[in-house]
Specification:
The protein is an alpha/beta fold. It is built from nine helices and eight strands. The protein has helices spanning 13-24, 31-41, 44-55, 61-71, 90-102, 117-125, 166-180, 182-189, 202-214, and strands spanning 2-6, 28-30, 81-84, 109-114, 127-130, 136-138, 158-159, 193-197. It has a five-stranded parallel sheet with strand order 2-3-1-4-8, with helices on both faces. A three-stranded antiparallel sheet has the order 6-5-7. Strand 5 and strand 6 form a beta hairpin. Helix 1 (13-24) crosses helix 9 and helix 4 runs parallel beside helix 5. The protein is globular, with a radius of gyration of 17 Å. The structure holds adenosine-5'-diphosphate (ADP) and adenosine monophosphate. Residues 9, 31-32, 35, 52-53, 56-59, 64, 85-86, 88, 92, 172 line the site of adenosine monophosphate.
Length: 216
């Protein structure tokens, strides 16, 4: 199963991707995570991407296309993958098409998570993750069962992203509407698009997605 998750920053793509990983056993390929790893490791790509990411703008197409192309050749992607945060421009979408075609692969579904803009700043500014296993949480919407302890791995260390602030969200949302939202029509025209209501609670969104995937 090869999936794309589409939606603005804070829509719930990462949250739902983690659940699809658990249920279907295919890896989550988040270009945001990969770029943040490159920034932490201080690689050339990381050095080029850091300021752009901090400003909430999009990293250049050639960088992210190269990262994804290399990643989907890894053995753990043989049975499928979930693209989270990629493609984000029409150039990236065309490159994804070409990449899959060259490998003789097909896209199963593009899941659009629809959310009203008003909730996004709260979702993004309240977001944090376990520093050890990456499980995602939220200050009010999704707290660990035991305060300060990760449900999944028991770690007591958490982190927040430098770009998860209300100022940067505005730029990120502009980038989404200008560069990424045209992909909704692009995939609709290809008969691949399915949309879910991302305003519903997290479990409800998961079950709506599972229903779509069961019939995919
Ligand atoms: P994205 O990957 O699309 O940027 P996330 O999955 O990281 O978004 O979600 C952003 C924040 O909102 C997280 O802290 C998450 O816990 C919370 N969240 C995700 N989905 C929902 C939902 N349906 N209702 C309320 N909060 C949510
Ligand atoms: P995300 O973790 O998906 O919110 O992405 C964080 C940041 O990484 C974005 O604001 C961009 O600067 C960069 N980024 C992630 N994915 C892409 C992509 N597909 N194309 C361009 N920039 C990206």
């Amino acid at each position: 199963m090869r999936l794309i998750l589409l939606g603005p920053p804070g829509a719930g793509k990462g949250t739902q991707a983690q659940r699809i990983v658990e249920k279907f056993g295919i890896p989550q390929l988040s270009t945001g995570d990969m770029l943040r790893a490159a920034v932490s490791a201080g690689t050339d790509v990381g050095k080029r991407a850091k300021a752009v990411m901090d400003a909430g703008k999009l990293v250049s197409d050639d960088i992210v296309i190269a990262i994804v192309s290399e990643r989907i050749d890894q053995p753990d992607c043989a049975k499928g993958f979930i693209l989270d945060g990629f493609p984000r421009t029409l150039v990236q979408a065309d490159a994804t098409d070409a990449m899959l075609k060259a490998k003789g692969l097909d896209l199963s579904k593009v899941l659009e998570i629809k959310v009203n803009d008003e909730v996004l700043a709260d979702r993004v500014s309240g977001r944090y993750t376990c520093a050890n296993c990456g499980a995602g949480y939220h200050d009010t919407n999704l707290r660990p069962r035991q305060e300060g302890v990760c449900d999944r791995c028991g770690s007591t260390h958490f982190k927040r992203r430098p770009d998860d602030n209300r100022e940067t969200v505005v730029t990120r949302l502009q980038a989404y509407y200008k560069e990424t939202s045209p992909l909704i029509g692009y995939y609709h025209a290809k008969g691949k698009l399915a949309s879910v209501d991302g305003m519903a609670d997290i479990d409800r969104v998961t079950s709506d997605i599972e229903k779509i995937l069961e019939s995919a």
